[in-house]
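Bit of a strange request maybe. I'm writing a small parser for structure token strings and I need a real example to test against, not something I typed by hand. Could someone generate the tokens for this chain?
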Amino acid sequence: MKKIFFVVLFLLSALSVHSQVMPDTSVDADSVSTAIIPILGYSSDIGLLVGGVFSRYDYRGNTKPFNNLKQIQGIISTKGYINAEVLYEKTNTFGKDIRTTVNAYGNRFKDDTFFGIGNNTTYSQQLWDDEYYFFESISFGLNLKFRKPVYQKGRAQFDLSAGIGFDYQIAYVNQSNSSFNQIMPNGSDGGFVNYLSGGFVWENRDSEFDPHIGNRAELEINYAPKYLSEFPLTTIRLDLRQYARLFNYITLAGRVEARHAGGDVPYWELSTLGDDYSLRGYPLNRFKGSSSLAYNLEMRSWLIHLPNYGVRIGAHTFTDGGRVFTGQDSFKDIFKSHKHTWGVGGAVSAFSPDFILRADLGFSDDSNQLYIGIGYMF
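Reply from user aminoacidic:
Good idea to test on real output. This should exercise your parser:
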């Protein structure tokens, strides 16, 4: 029997502290919007989950897309899953047109999953029920990124980016007969990856949070030198996005992402598909390799508008695809053995049109999965 996720309750409760109710398509340039969103749900793998999201958008100063943003998220479950994340963004740092992003996170997965390395690793319902794919992991990290625009014209903007950060992860194997214990991948004893980053962002979408037209391209290179990191490595990621408006109320959104990791790469830094950003519907971290190619297509629409309360309710459908590559694959394999999933979802925007709470239900050959997060996937 496939794993099926159910939502018991998706509760929206927001507290507005700005001086006037904001419409659902624009914001007051001198307003501050604060929302508290409780979340309650259930999954067959992580049990009953409870948590909440606090967000505060400061639009004062007429700075686009905002002056600053603060978000705090916390989730716990009855099967030992714990997640905490803090995000802070400021678009004008020290009076300069430099956008600063600080992101800190911590996770504890009591039932983290490892299926091996490669695009053709197998899945067995019996082994899943026997917890063969499971291990426990603890991870945390901090990332600081700066973006400086070097070209601006209308909606179009080209930014150079730089940053610094670290990730730490350690695994705990609960049983000797497990896929993780049998393979013992690189990094199984845990450790730090301390890295420097650089790249660029091209942006000309009509909205950063709810885009309808335009495109976006991002190149990010992370370099972890041996004198700073326990695992010296380099990762390269290219993310391309395109948006188009259909019939004036449907948005067609497409995304292609390619990633490669080279050097002394621990298992958690491998290119991975199977989460709330790729191949939604497969179990977590289903496919791992040194390189990956992933693509997504979504059709989105806002169905219910309550302008007096600043609330919108929407729905979307999606399909995901992609595959991973290892050293045993050749270039001709790039068009072979791709995995595909499909699904449906819903979204709620409360008080600020920039704040969107999303739920996706994905279906794959292995299982069905539910994802709840902040903002559209891309």
